[in-house]
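Final report, Chapter 2: Outcomes

The project's central promise was a pipeline that accepts a single protein chain and returns its three-dimensional structure in a standardized token representation, suitable for archiving and comparison. That pipeline is now operational. To close this chapter, we reproduce one record exactly as it appears in the project archive, with the input sequence first and the structure output second.
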Amino acid sequence: MGIQRSFLSPNLPLPSVAVEFLTREWTVGHLDLREWLVVVSSRQAGRRLREGLAALAAGRGAAVFPPLVVTPEFLLTFGDQVERVATAPDTVLAWNEVLRGLDFASFGALFPAPPRRPDFSWALATGRELARVKRLLAEGGLGMRDVETRAPEGFGETERWRALAELERRYRETLKTHGLTDPDEAKIARAANPAAPDSVKRIVLLGVPDPLPLAVEALKKLSETLPVVVAIHADARDRDAFDAWGRPVAEVWEQRVEDWDSGEDLFFPCSDAAAQARTAGLLLKECRDPARSAAMGAADPAVIPFLERSLPRDCDLAAYDPEGRPLKAEELYNLLACFRDLLRVSDFGSCGEMIRCPVVIRYLDHLPGLPPFPVWLRIWEEFGADHLPGDLAAARALANGEGRTDVVVRRILETVETMLGQFSQAPVWEALPSVLRTLHGDLRFREDAPADRRYLAAAEAVMGVLEEMRDSPLAAGQGAAGADGLDLLLGLLGDKHIEEDRPEAAIDVQGWLELPWEEAPFLVLTGMNEHHVPETIAGDPFVPESLRRPLGLKSNRMRFARDRYLLESLMKCRRENGKVAILFGRTGPEGEPMRPSRLLMRCSREELPQRVNRLFADPPSLERRSAWSSPWRLRPAMATPPERISVTQFGAYLRCPFRFYLSNLLRMEPVDPRKTEMDAAEFGSACHRILEAFGRDEVLRRSQDAAEIQAFFESELDRFFRFRYGHDLSVPLVIQKEAISGRLARFAEVQAEERRLGWIIEEVEWRFPDDDALCIGGLPVRGVIDRIERNEIVGTYRVLDYKTADQDREPEKDHFVEIKKNEDAEGVPEYARFELDGKAHRWIGLQLPLYLWALRGRCGEETVCGYVNLPKAVTETGISLWRNRSRELEESAYRCAEGVVADLQGGVFWPPAQKVAFDDFKDLFFGDIEGLTDPSDLRFHNSES
């Protein structure tokens, strides 16, 4: 019958010209298109086309009998009947079986170094990669066996592809043994002998700029018996820019200069994905009736979650993804991943993540012998932070260790290990349903709750895949239990999506290839960055760009031409009556730099310098005036007035009164469920404990023998680690123990030398007396001095505090800093300021001055103070004294302390400092601590302030 091309006006949106094209022969009566087979680019395009046909028919008071609307992949599923086609579990298990039985000596070209552990997990990951390569080749109607003969001359991978071809042959034979046909082979067979439904008399490839090469082969065959029309959304004058199948010709589009007007409001550089979402929301807000007149595109899927959060707040529209929510984002998938990780490594951190899953929390909350959720979770976290168990065995030993019995932790561990045991005893399709039944128990789901509907949809998808795995004839003997079985399941679930009901007030967030079927006059394009548009494949280890073109596969050149054409099409159809906004980010999810798409620079050479300046300009004012905000603001609870204050808390208040409120009054602190090593405070505490034990030994603390002192340190260090962390230390703890040992070894020499100079320890861990010896503004001050020494030769005292930071510390720099000229000094309270050497300074800590004030009646005016530094560089270990002390400076420090207490008692906790050196709350406020906080209740109980 032949192939005919038809060009549709590019000045109108594709849906309207597509409807006009299909109905041009319709005059009267009902619209009957049942003899048409219409091939479109995606399911969303098919929905748009059917909606357009229905609207046209309804406008004329007629009924419509729609055509069969399909995607190119449909052409590969309808035709010659083949043997039973393998399911996804069948193919994965077949590759697994082949790879686990390999003699690697015979496959040196493919595996020059045999894998260290050729187990189920290795075979699963390797099989996934080989299946990807096979699927890619199948798009062009090829198998691995065809590459050697199709590769260009001089191709240097012949032996490697012969090995791959042999693996492919064994894979096909494995499926055949079980009466199965590989799905890619089935598609190739159907493309060679395709068929159309009996009702079809005409075929149109409608607005598909990059059909699968294999689908094109099927259309060629069908064109021998049926007329095939290729409808191209472009001007007929551009006929040489497209091939016979409507694909943009790379040679033409690589040289083509853009053919649209790039106004000043076209490009919107944004800092990141969140900023793109904010800008998009404000653009839509400025649009009249955006739900009807605007459309949203996301070339970069990473922008979609930010759009989902921002649009409801910024323009009262929900962001709806027609593809559905990725199953990977669902609670149930995360639960399965937690089980898999825990079974794989059995570490305490993985267990902590698993018991934080909502369904596990609900289950544990009803277990006999456990307190309510917040209590048992706090006990679990404190146990992990205190003892840092490497794995569950170490946690169990520590929970039952000498001198303690952590009942709550032991009960949770027993429950978790019981569930894990079920996975190790049976294949995943038997074990998982049993575990899920145990966890869910009598839990009831509500159909009217969106979260519950998603959970049930995810569960249905999981059970469907489990049934396919169970029914696979290759499942027997594969050993798909434990972590291996869950890894297999998660891989099969990874690409699935869950459909959601579209909210009434919503705007669709469409993918790049779906946008040609959008006819809204205002189009907001996000994610227009290089690598996303044009879509670029780089570094494929098997099928590089140099091999794709000779094999007839989609190449980067073809993708560039396609995306260059699509961008022009989107712009042209809105040139007369519409508008396009192009957004792109400067940085990616990990902070990596990103570039605007090179398609945005396909302008004339004369315009290019100005275009580059616009694309790389600072983000426009539209973004700057739209500070990021959360849909909710943190409203900290009222606090109980403090009954006392510690010397270190003065510094915390001076650094930031609001963070002081959170950490010291509300007791908020960050939680790291994956913590595997001591943090800085715990590292310092370990050193303190050992030095305290040394200072309490009446005999040893007088020693001048460095070797004797070091031996004591080593003994105490071993004892401390055994009690705190058990006998089986993790690698990070072993390294930290060695680091402490090195620092103490050097300090043993310093200690011996200081003793020879006459310094003798009088007190260690000296606590301020309980008789309120130091009371400021009516508030008792508490403190613990690490070491008080007296010099037996001259009789003077010195007060020392241990510091174990990586760098050596100077007392002056820890207590006050100069107020710079460019610094915002208005936020510094008057009581915290003082003059030193003619320059303005401010207090940032009061620890040592308050130590001296507490000892003023005991040690005399000549008392000195400073730090015992035990830094990372042991050559810098030593004592650093406060050299420039004066009576005036100490009195200024005391006045500052009085000011802090007055503000504290007056409920002054706002505003917060914008920047602090170490911020425990940075992940809570996302860099906008004022914007995300409602300070309404920032006060004390029973206080009117």
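Archive annotation: Residues 621-629 have pLDDT under 50 and may be disordered.
This record, like all others produced under the grant, will remain available to the consortium after the project formally closes.
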